[in-house]
Specification:
Layout lengths: L2 H13 L4 E3 L1 H18 L11 H19 L3 H22 L7 H13 L10 H11 L11 E3 L1 H21 L2 H4 L2 H11 L11 H21 L6 H18 L5 H8 L6 H11 L10
Antiparallel strand pairs: 1-2
């Protein structure tokens, strides 16, 4: 292997498998995704809705793992368990044609939880950290608690998942039906008929322009979110896009999930430092 190939392999390893840093952003994603998961499915698979033993078992697993994920107890296992539970719901929805379950919104939530399990997401804001602090206090020579620092390989994979989502949703929309505004107009008819925004249907040209803008933005975000120096405009644009989706369309938890996953795009040290500053603490270095 040439020196140039070795350097490239080393850079790729540092970017991905060996990527480490502050675990606060990962912990915030853990708490938020658990909240989103329970909001999305809690009312639909509660014990009062169970009709057979399989669903009862799946429901019990889901609520157990999502509770563990929220409080950060055995955090990585809890993230895997929650992600697998949601993935089973996604597959079951496709088999049984349950409305809203076999949707890419649900798939994104499931995969994000599974990938988060590849991070040290329990080293901040968790029962796991509290237990580690208690252990450290029993050691007389220990002056500081365990560091909020660890492996973040899953965070990189979440960023790639977001990029792939934007790319393939843009590909799906790149046809005459969507770019002409017809598909979006059908969605607006179903959403706005008999409601205050029904007047929008009188402007098909505006709907077509919105459709084209969405496709352009999604193609741009597929690349821009992976380039740190472009984040200054790409991240606000992406957040505005998802806020627009949430306000204008019945996208349920999709926008909330995507917005939470933007934490995976940020520099973990900057997130840590920002939290320190708003809490009145010193710089990030003394924690890491």
């Amino acid at each position: 292997m040439s020196n140039e190939m070795r350097r490239l392999a080393a850079r790729l390893d540092a970017w991905g498998p060996s990527f480490t840093g502050s675990t606060r952003a990962a912990a915030l994603m853990r708490i938020a995704l658990a909240t989103i998961a329970i909001s999305r499915f809690g009312g639909e698979i509660g014990f009062h809705q169970v009709e057979n033993p399989f669903v009862l078992l799946l429901s019990g697993m889901f609520f157990l793992f999502v509770a563990m994920m929220f409080i950060g107890y055995l955090s990585r296992l809890a993230c895997f368990g929650t992600g697998v539970s949601v993935l089973v719901l996604y597959i079951a929805g496709a088999v049984t044609q349950t409305p809203g379950w076999a949707h890419h919104h649900v798939y994104l939530l499931a995969i994000a939880c599974i990938l988060l399990g590849l991070t040290a997401c329990g080293r901040s804001y968790s029962i796991d950290r509290l237990r580690a602090l208690n252990v450290a206090q029993r050691v007389p020579a220990t002056h500081e608690g365990p560091r909020e620092y660890g492996a973040l390989w899953g965070q990189r994979l979440i960023a790639l998942q977001l990029s792939a989502m934007y790319f393939w949703t843009a590909i799906d929309k790149t046809d005459r039906a969507f770019l002409s505004g017809e598909r979006l107009e059908q969605t607006f008819v179903w959403t706005y008929s008999g409601r205050a925004l029904e007047f929008v249907l009188a402007y098909p040209g505006l709907i077509a322009a919105l459709a084209i803008m969405v496709v352009i933005v999604e193609y741009a975000l597929a690349v821009a979110i992976l380039v740190p120096r472009w984040h200054i405009w790409a991240l606000p644009l992406g957040l505005a896009l998802h806020a627009g989706f949430y306000l204008m369309l019945p996208v349920h938890t999709y926008s909330a999930t995507a917005m939470v996953l933007y934490l995976a795009l940020l520099d973990p040290a900057r997130v840590h430092n920002f939290i320190d500053r708003i809490q009145g603490h010193g710089r990030v270095a003394h924690h890491l």
